[in-house]
Amino acid sequence: MPKTHGSPPKKRKKICFIDAFAGCGGLSLGLQNAGWTGRFAIEKNPDAFRTFAKNLIERSGHPFDWPDWLPKKHTAVRTVLRKYSHELSKLEGKVDLLAGAPPCQGFSLAGRRTHADPRNALFRQYIRIVKIVKPRFVLLENVQGFSFPFKKHGRGQEKYKPYSELLAEKLEALGYKVFSELVDFSEYGVPQTRSRFILVAIRSGDKALDKLGDSTPFHRLRNARVPFLKSKDLPHNAPVSVRQAIADLEMSNTQLVPASDEEGHGFLQIKYCPYKPLTRFVKLMRRGLECGPDSIRLARHRTETVEQFTKIISSCKKGQSLNMDDRKRLGIKKHALTPLHSKLPSSTITTLPDDILHYSEPRILTVRENARLQTFPDWFQFTGDYTTGGKERRNACPRYTQVGNAVPPLFGEAIGRVLKRLCR
Q1: FRET label pair with 300: which of 48, 225, 263, 357, CA 20 to 30 Å apart?
Q2: Are 306 and 362 in contact (CB under 8 A)?
């Protein structure tokens, strides 16, 4: 009798996610690198969505199983809820993870922090998606201020309870067990001191809770830290420094040429030649790319600005924001300005390009240098204007803003791996 063979092994079911408030795609990229499949993403800003689409929809290798009913264009979460609630309801029980990073400016400790900021209400839209889709897992990232009450500019519950508690209560009422912590991303290979509020919620009765037992997703994350960094060939006993991240993008010892995306406008960029030897971090960022990265256009500083930056670099303490005495001595009114320390991680990358100065060159960082510090790989291309001023600033999302708002893909991959193992 001919030999019979058993049935072929079953293919593992794809684990899928939806990314709400997706920005330019940092969290989606990290989750995809961790083995997740994207269903779709929601982002209302056209500038950010163009960058998202260029890298994570149009580029091969990072596919989304995008549904036919949702246009591949910028769309607000409230619009999706209003126009496609029926289609969303058909996804009930079919989505493993709802991920997202709602706009954080209203919660930032660097801002006015008023409960009346309309951006603060966006987490309620996030809850509405949870209520309709009922994903197995919920993942949310926000600034530290999300976990602080609005004592100064608040009223009602917001004055005494932080939005993190209000969100947890809503999720618990929907049948989720909620875990949250402040996480320092520099512990996961991100070369900046970027502490963020992270929430993970797991639907009651899910087998993942049995796997966790008395543990939490954050215990799993910490236990996985060293193996994760080793898998990326990154150091695990010290954070990645600024110089280890961007030394190959310095102006010194290279030629300056007209900026490739601003021909005839007077901007310059370096003629990229890989710095030898490349650091382990730079090798990781350049994986799969032979040519130079985009968005390396240098700022066009005035002579007096260069002179002031030179004084700051030479006379102020690096790695921390200028103190009041230094600002008074140098005639600087700006409150948040940090000259970087080459041997330390960067201060937090923000949406304002002039918040930090290069560690050795009298200039602000390029978009690509900021993107490196946010762990975007060099193949990831940014689109749109570099900066926007005046009346357009409120609605525009130029390249510096896209980068500053993003979740670092490397951290997205680290947490994505942990949730993937729980999801199986």
Answers
A1: 48
A2: yes
Block residue for tokens 């330019």: 24
What domain count does the chain have? 2
Question: Between these two residues, 121 and 158, which has the higher pLDDT value?
Answer: 121
> Across residues 50-67, what is the average pLDDT?
90
CATH number at residue 88: 3.40.50.150
Quick one: DSSP state of residue 365? P
List the structure tokens of 327.
């600002």
Encoded tokens for 102? 């709602």
Is position 310 within any domain? yes
Q: Identify whether the C-beta of residue 374 lies closer than 8 Å to the C-beta of residue 406.
A: yes
Whether residues 205 and 319 fall in one domain: no
**Which residue numbers are catalytic?**
104
Beta-carbon neighbour count of residue 172 at 10 Å?
A: 13
3-state secondary structure of 29: helix
Same domain (yes/no): 198, 314: no
At 126, list the tokens.
């996030």
Is 11 inside any structural domain? no
Residue type, 197: F
Please, are residues 423 and 44 in contact by the beta-carbon 8 Å criterion?
no
Q: Report pTM.
A: 0.91
Q: What's the token pair of residue 232?
A: 């990326």
- Helix segments in 36-107, DSSP class H: 46-56, 77-83, 85-89
Which domain range does residue 333 map to? 303-365
Helix, strand, coil percentages (3-state) for the chain, rounded to 5, are 40, 15, 50
| DSSP one-letter string for 1-26 | -PPP-PPPPPPPPPPEEEEES-TTSH
pLDDT higher than 60, residue 398 = yes
Given the structure tokens 């979740």, which residue do they identify? 407
The pLDDT of residue 383 is above 90: yes
> What is the distance in angstroms between the CA of the first residue and the CA of the last residue of the chain?
39
Structural contact between residues 323 and 335, judged by C-beta atoms closer than 8 angstroms: no
Residue 206 CA to residue 218 CA, distance in Å, equals 17
Percent of all residues in the chain with a pLDDT value above 90, rounded to a whole number: 74
**3-class state of residue 198 by DSSP:** strand
b/e per residue 264-274 (b: at least 16 CB within 10 A):
eeebbbbebee
Q: How far apart are CA 64 and CA 46, in angstroms?
A: 19
By three-state DSSP, how is residue 322 classified?
coil
**In angstroms, what is the C-alpha Rg of the chain?**
22
Q: Mean pLDDT for the chain?
A: 89
Per-residue pLDDT, averaged over 306-323, amounts to 95
Gap between the Cα atoms of 265 and 267, Å rounded: 6
